[in-house]
Each structure stands twice: as structure tokens, then as C-alpha cells.
Automatic annotation (TrEMBL):
SUPFAM superfamilies in UniProt: C-type lectin-like
Source superkingdom: Eukaryota
Protein name: C-type lectin domain-containing protein
Entry-linked CDD domains: CLECT
Residues in C-type lectin domain copies: 57-172
């Protein structure tokens, strides 16, 4: 399976990115997986539904926060923005979140997402856990690891890690 991302600028000289995710699998295009949406990498948006500084995809708005903080503080910051740490429910969303992070951090450093397991696996936005994308041998729950970040190790997938470590994060919310 290969993912292709096409990026370009648009609209009123503001730095915007049109993201096209095309899934090419087994030599044929899977057109039912093609997504074409706009999201912003600066303080503007192509979506009439997301406020300035938020990018849009589907029915949600996304914001990358570069300031590193612990998981609980990251979730509190998102809550102040009427959002939660990002949840992903499909490979398409996983790839979009990775592309969104990469647009802000070309090094693709580890970034908090909204999944935790301090008592049971749950997304901070309350949505169902219906998709996972763990690195090999994860989750392993070593040293009270009950929070999750993405872009870990060479595979750049999910890893459980102690909630007290500082990372940047992505907030997500439904448009107002």
C-alpha cells in the first residue's frame, strides 16, 4: 500500500495546502479511498466551517500546537479551544494527521494524540476505539505507560508512553 500526497498553495496569497491522499494498492487505484480536502498550515483556512488557524478535513477541524507539554496539559489546552486531542478512526485519518503534523514539523517528531489507557483504552473525545496503528511490540505498558503519541520510531506509528513526558500535540473539534 502506498500513500501519495500532493500539496500546493491557494486562495488570497495565504499559505494554504490542498491535500490529496491517493491510495494505490496492488497495481490498481482504489478510487473509493481518494480524499480531497483543504487544510491550513498558517493562520488561514479554506473551510468556511473552521476558524482561522484551524485546518479542516471531513467534518472536523485540526490545530497543531508546537509547544511541548505533558498529555494532561495538552488535553486541557485543547479543551480551552473547545476541542480534544485528536482521535483517528481509519487509515485515511491516520495518514491525514501524519501529513498535518509533517506540514508543521518536517522532522515528524513524536506528537501526542488523544488515546490513553490509564484504566481502559479510550479516546479523550469519547469516541469509540475502532482503529489502531501501533508500532511493533506496542502497546507494552512499561513504566506506567498509559498515554499515546504518534510518529514513534522508524515506523512512525503509535507508542504508549508515560503521560508526563512533553511533546507537541494536535487538537481536533467539530466545526461550530
Amino acid at each position: 500500500m502506498n500513500w501519495y500526497l500532493k500539496l500546493f498553495c491557494c486562495k488570497n496569497n495565504k499559505q494554504l495546502v490542498k491535500l490529496t491522499v491517493d491510495l494505490f494498492s496492488l497495481g490498481s487505484w482504489q478510487s473509493n479511498h481518494i480524499k480531497k480536502e483543504y487544510f491550513s498550515v498558517n493562520e488561514a483556512t479554506c473551510s468556511p466551517h473552521c476558524t482561522s488557524g484551524w485546518g479542516s478535513y471531513g467534518i472536523r477541524c485540526f490545530k497543531y500546537i508546537a509547544n511541548s507539554t505533558d498529555w494532561v496539559s495538552a488535553e486541557k489546552h485543547c479543551l480551552k479551544l473547545h476541542a480534544n486531542l485528536v482521535s483517528t478512526h481509519s487509515e485515511d485519518e491516520f495518514q491525514l494527521v501524519k501529513a498535518f503534523i509533517r506540514a508543521h514539523d518536517p522532522m515528524e517528531n513524536p506528537t501526542w494524540i488523544g488515546l490513553s489507557d490509564c484504566q481502559e483504552w479510550i479516546w479523550s473525545d469519547g469516541t469509540e476505539l475502532n482503529y489502531v496503528n501501533w508500532n511493533p511490540s506496542e502497546p507494552n505498558h512499561l513504566n506506567n505507560e498509559c498515554c499515546v503519541h504518534t510518529n514513534w520510531s522508524d515506523q512512525k506509528k503509535w507508542n504508549d508512553i508515560p503521560c508526563t513526558i512533553n511533546y507537541p500535540f494536535v487538537c481536533a473539534k467539530k466545526p461550530a
